[in-house]
Each structure stands twice: as structure tokens, then as C-alpha cells.
Amino acid sequence: MPANRPNEFCYLSADMARPTGSTLLPRSDRIPVSYTATVPAIDPRAFRECCGSFATGVTVITTHTSEGDHGMTVSAFMSVSLDPPLIAVSLDRRAKMLPRLKVSRRFAVNILSQGMKAHALHFAGRSDERLMDLFLSSQGLPVLRGAAAVITADLMQQVEAGDHVLFLGHVRHLIRDSAATPLLFHAGQFNSLATRPDD
Ligand SMILES: Cc1cc2nc3c(=O)[nH]c(=O)nc-3n(C[C@H](O)[C@H](O)[C@H](O)COP(=O)(O)O)c2cc1C
Hints:
By secondary structure, this protein is mainly beta. The chain has a domain at 55-187: Roll (Pnp Oxidase, Chain A). The chain has three helices and 14 strands. The strands form four sheets. Strands 5-4-8-11-12-7-6 form a seven-stranded antiparallel beta sheet. The longest helix is centred in the N-terminal third of the chain and has 9 residues, at 44-52. The chain starts with 8 loop residues before the first strand and ends in a 7-residue tail after the last strand. Mean pLDDT is 87; it is low at 1-23. Flavin mononucleotide (FMN) binds next to β5 and β7.
């Protein structure tokens, strides 16, 4: 039985005093019960900190519309499927990137390399005027110079998910610098891979 899903319904015995164990009740004996009243609320800060224990890479999602090039720093990126090749990113509903992606229906995931912390901050709303001539063009999209890898995708599906929207992309083109080391993000801090003594 799911223990932690507010607003979802599952089926319990109509006679709550009777222990049900793992016995599956006949359909006629089941009633929908909401978990909302019994599950304690998750503290947003604790949730954020807990998720911060999961170390990630850092990407900049880029796209192009009639308004020009746009980039946004995103750590919520994942590969989803090999066949067909699919990826997903999770974007805050309030991000300026959202309406642009819905129009362009194409985007690039630029996986940042170790020396690109300034880029990560720049595309997270802390504009850095020292960064210039940032983009190259690939497949008609702006892509970041110096990225460890670039995955270009066509928008396949959007999934509303609370205060975020998941964008699923069908991968169309790949660029990879096999010598690059990635920029990491963990517990709210930028980081890099530990170097081995023989490096
Ligand atoms: C390291 C890092 C990771 C981030 N990851 C995400 C993310 O996965 N999803 C998201 O919606 N915002 C994320 N952000 C915040 C956005 O980059 C930020 O809100 C940005 O200004 C939105 O861009 P836009 O509104 O110009 O499109 C992240 C910021 C940083 C610094």
C-alpha cells in the first residue's frame, strides 16, 4: 500500500476494525479512502535538502525563437530511453524558457564542464557581463562553447507536474568532448570530481 501519496485513493475494507492483512478483498467490499488526512505534510526545505543529497551534473538548456537565443541552467535532466532515444528535463512553470520551448519545440541540453560555473550562474539569472560570445550554432540551435557534451532534441511531450513541467525530448543529434570533466552540483554547491593521486 502506498504510504506517502496525498490526494491519491486506494481501496480499503469497508469494515476498518477488521484486520485485512494482505488478503485481497472482493471488489464489492472495497471503498475509496483518501490518504490526505493521515499523511503528514512534507516540509519543503527538508525536501529540498534531501534531494540535494543527490549529486548531479549541471546543464544549460538552450533554444531559439523569434525573440532570439535563450538559455536556462537546469540540473533536473535525465536520460529516459535508449530506443527510441529520449531525454527529460523538469522546468519551473515560472521560467521564461517555458513559453519559448512551447513555440520552438526544439532544445539543446548543454552538459557543463568543470570550468563553467560562471555559465551556470549566468543562465540562472545572475547575468555576468564578462561572459561573451557564448554560443555556437548546431542544428539550427544555439549551443555553448566549451560544453562537455550537447544533446539536441525535438520536443515530444509535456507533462504537468505540480509547480514544474516535464519536457520529454526525442534526441536528434549528439556532440561530445571525451576529454572534458563535468561540473557537479551537490548540497547547493558546485563541485568537481576528485582527482586520483596518479592524475
Ligand atoms: C545549479 C542550478 C540548477 C538549477 N536547476 C533547475 C532545474 O532543474 N529546473 C528549474 O526549473 N530551475 C533550475 N534552476 C533555476 C533556473 O536556472 C533559474 O530559475 C533561471 O533563472 C530560469 O531561467 P529563465 O526564467 O530565464 O528561463 C537551477 C539553478 C541552478 C543554479
